[in-house]
Each structure stands twice: as C-alpha cells, then as structure tokens.
Amino acid sequence: MIEKERCIPEMILKLEALLKRMPEMEQGKEKVRSELNKRNAGYKGEQKLDYYLSFLDEKEYRIYHGLRLTNGKHYFQIDTLLVTRKMAFILEVKNWNGTIIFDPEFHQLIRVQNDKQEAFHDPISQAEHQSRQLRKWLQDRGFTYIPIEFAVIISSPSTIIKSPTNQISNRVIHAHRLIHKITSIEKTHTAERLTEKELKKLSRILLKKHVLQEIDILEYFNIKLDTILTGVYCPKCSALPMIFHWGKWRCPTCKTSSAIAHHQAIKDYFLLINPTITNAEFRRFTHITSVYTASKLLAQMDLEQGGEKKNRVYKKPAN
Ligand SMILES: [Zn+2]
Predict the structure, then answer these.
(1) Nearest to residue 110, comparing CAs of 42, 160, 49, 151?
(2) Which residue ranges does the record assign to the NERD domain (predicted)?
(3) Residue from 267, 213, 201 nearest 66 by CA
(4) Ligand 1 centroid to residue 265 C-alpha, Å
(5) CA of 245 to the centre of ligand 1 (A)
(6) What residues pack around ion ligand 1 (CB closer than 5 A)?
C-alpha cells in the first residue's frame, strides 16, 4: 500500500519557474538548465522503480516516497522506504548511465561515460548513513526492534556496475532485480516486530513528521530578485505579459484570453520569491494597477489568509 505518494520534487518546480522567468542572456541560466536536467533524470529514475514496486503484496508492504525526517538539527531524506511487520527497507535510487566503478577503499564511486570520468559520493555509505539516522529516529519514538535493511538501486538496465570486491553485489542492484532482492532479504527476518496497530501508529508518525525542504532558489544560484521577469504568461503562446482588461487576461501576441492565467504567476511567485504574497506584491508581480481587482482575484483563489486589512497576506498552499 502506498502511504506516501511520489510527487514532483519541489526543487524541480522551482527550477522550472526560475528558468522561465530568467531573461535569455542572464548569466547562470545554463547552470539552472543543467541542474534541472539532472534533477529530472533523477526523478525519472525513481519513477521507473514504481513499476517494480507494484508487484509487492499491497497488504504486506507500506511504501513511503520522498520522506524527509529530522533528528534534532540533522535532516535525512529517504528516496523510498518500505515497512513491513518484520523490517524496514531503505531504497537509494541512482540514475547513473555508462559504467560505474565502486571504490570501497576511498568510499567513492567513479562514473565513466563517453571517455569522461566523474567522481561521486559512495551511495552505499550514503544509504548506511540513512539507516543509522532512521534507527535513531525510530528509537527516539519507541520503535526499538525493527531491523533496517537497505539497497542501492541502479535504475537504468544498461548501466555497467563494476567493483574490485564482490561485497557490493549484496547491496547494489539493477531495478529489475528489486523484488527478488526484497523477498530474499525478507526471508532472513522471521520474527514479527510490529503488530498491525503499531504499523498504523508508525505510519501516522512518519507522515506527520515529514518536513518539506524549503530552498531559497534565488539565493541558491545567487540571482538578484530584480532580474526575475514579472508579469503573467500567456498559457497558449508563452508571451509575456498578458494584460488584464474587462475581467480577463488578454494576450497581445496571439489574442488568447483567460480568466485564470494569473494562477500560474502566483505559483511562480510562491516558488521563487516568497511563500506568502500581499496585495501590493501581487499587483507588482502581475502588473495589475487596481487594488480592488487584485483583491478580487486573490480572494477567488481560496488561499489561506493571515493578517488584517493592509497587512493581509495570502499563503502558498501546502502541496
Ligand atoms: Zn499568447
């Protein structure tokens, strides 16, 4: 049973909004584009896993995608977590192409692709670290006896995996071997550690304690706020800006009209600039001149509100 669905990572949405609202010649745009490509490839790799996970017995396995938890000030994120009555299983998903070579001595991974070598953190150490963090997290909440297993999943079937020792074959597998791996490990754990009631309790706590990662994307790429393009994009031809006239957004380029084109603009604002917006900020960002019109459009969006009158803010919906 999927307890926490996989959703498009917030960082991808932020990068897409940023790319769209950066002027063409702006410095750093290439960096944003390549970061977006990297994140999209990683997300696609994780999605490929879903096909294999769909073969697991729904009654036995509880599946959590993209959990981010904290032990005090340290956060840890788990690509996919499986929980059964007998164990917890961490899946660390990697979308590497070409040939990957594990270097157990220096806890490093070398990827060779198109005659180019690149070094990465060893994903086994990474998954071990997550196991330790999860163990502590569970212990702090009274779940002491749950064995924690992990595997590094290589999502692309054509990736060649190499290692000087055969120790890693235990821990690193191609996605199509996933079910075999999980069931064979499950067999080594015979004792039931959690009752159905405890599983439900754990599920409730995991979902409640999940923390969304808030990244200030402009700060991350060192981009000045005043370089961000403002205005409402045309949903049909992507021209900027549309003009609000007689209750509708109208595109001067392709003549499309829309009553809701500002919805995307406000989403962009929340992703790029601030998770709250005032009437004045909304007008500046969408080029609306009337306070009255702005407040009508904002009210129609059913956003959660805070503050009174002039200090009223409209809040970004929690996913
Ligand atoms: Zn247009």
Answers:
(1) 160
(2) 41-157
(3) 213
(4) 15
(5) 15
(6) 234, 236-237, 239, 251, 253-254, 256
Q: How far is the CA of 165 from the centre of ligand 1 (A)?
A: 59
CA 254 to centroid of chain Cα atoms: 35
Other CB atoms within 10 A of residue 82 CB: 19
Per-residue pLDDT tens over the stretch 14-30: 999 999 999 988 888 99
Q: Which tens digits make up the pLDDT trace of 237-290? A: 999 999 999 999 999 999 999 999 999 999 999 999 999 999 999 999 999 999
Specify whether the CB–CB gap between 88 and 82 falls below 8 A. Answer: yes
Residue 226 alpha carbon to ligand 1 centre in Å? 24
Q: Is the pLDDT of residue 197 over 90?
A: yes
Pair 98, 35: CB distance under 8 Å: no
Rounded to the nearest whole angstrom, what is the distance from the C-alpha of residue 22 to the centroid of ligand 1? 19
Task: Give the distance, in angstroms, between the CA of residue 259 and the centroid of all CA atoms in the same chain.
Answer: 30
Q: Ligand 1 centroid vs 241 CA: distance in angstroms? A: 9
